[in-house]
Amino acid sequence: MHFRFLFLAFMVLGTFACARKTTTAEQSGYSAAGQTGLDQHLNREEKNAAGTENILIGPSDRVAYESEPYSKWFHPAYQRYTPNAKIMEELQPMLENVSIRAYTGSWCMDSQRDLPRFYKVIDQAHFPHARFSVVNLREDKTSPNGEEKSANITAVPTFILYRDGKEVGRIVESAYPTIEMNMLTILKGEASK
Question: Which pTM value belongs to this model?
Answer without folding.
Answer: 0.78
